[in-house]
Amino acid sequence: MSAASNCAPVAPKSKEQLLADLNSCQWRALIIGIMAGIICIVDAFFSPVQFFRSYLFALVFWISFPLGGMAIVMMNHLTGGLWGLPIRRTLEAASRTLPLMLILFVPIFFGMRILYKWAQPAAVRADHVLQYQHIYLNDWFFVVRTIVYFAIWIFWAWLLNRWSAEQDRTGDRRIATRLESFSGPGLVVYGLLITFGSVDWVMSLEPHWYSTIYGLLFMVVQGLAALSFGVYVARRLSDYEPIASYVNPQRFNDLGNLLLTFVILWAYLAFSQFLIIWSGNTKMEIGWYMIRAHGGWAGLALFLILFHFFAPFVILLWRNVKRRMNTIAGVAVGLMFVSLVDVYWLVAPAFQPDQPKLHLLDFAAPTAIGGIWIAVFCRELKRRPLLPVHDPDFAEAFAHGD
After folding, report:
1. Which of 38, 57, 127, 283 could form a disulfide with 347, with the two C-beta atoms 3.0–4.6 Å apart?
2. What is the pTM of this model?
3. Which residue range is the domain that position 61 belongs to?
4. Is residue 397 in some structural domain?
5. What's the structural domain count of the chain?
């Protein structure tokens, strides 16, 4: 079951070489992250307001990978299917970085009064809407809710990873049933918490506006970003044993179909939100789109329409594209970048309603958080087997030569 000849090296690299390359990636990412972090800290003294704005945007983007990864792992446990086998250990490793994301969230607690109008006493006194919202949107309750979200997510990820490790160690087939039973409620809990989290962290930046689809959009953005990351890592790992002996073009074709599903779902939800708000044409709701549909933000919106939907939709319709590992990995990288732009389009107009004004921190903050996150991810990836060889689907698939 070797990887496609047009994508993989003639001779797959050894496990020892994989470990060495992961160590190298870990240290390079950590160094880059620290250097970018130093830039952020220095710049924060001169532009504290911009620091918190850029930091929030970067954090919201990078948290997509552990949360979206955990959700996709649970989806695979619940539905079954061979498509999840090449990426499951990758996404499990991503989910184990959630404690890091909680630590990285702490600066937001110190910047609440800079970021959020509802955290500014003068703004609350002058706005009757904020006064009504104050029972929910206030400093201490925001902190408590965020800690609760992360506590539940971390606990859920810990259980999933613990049982997965136990399955690797014992080969007990009953664990697969346990994981399946646990994943259904887990997806419900994830959906509820990320809905509240997206409202707290992003939608409340513009407290006069609301959307009931907002949480669903964030679920899809996180799922798409995490799945794209899993596809890219699976392609990189397919150069090494043991992945090279088990991954084949059909698995990447399945993952490409799932990417296409997420792309379509994002377009459906984004258009549904737009259509409902635009047809309602109420002053409180339509202002959110008026900002994002004019000036420089309109160009960014057009970019998202073209490259978050139309381009990947057309590309992923082609079976040959999805079966070529290098090509589908390139599409995955593009979708991760577009997801970054999408998060920026959701967050930044709350602070810059006229037009985008890119700042050094808009590049440094994502690089700093991303470098640190990738370093921790590489550390976690090295700690577990790269394939769930004791999963019943795995044994069945490769016993029949699939």
Report:
1. 57
2. 0.93
3. 15-392
4. no
5. 1
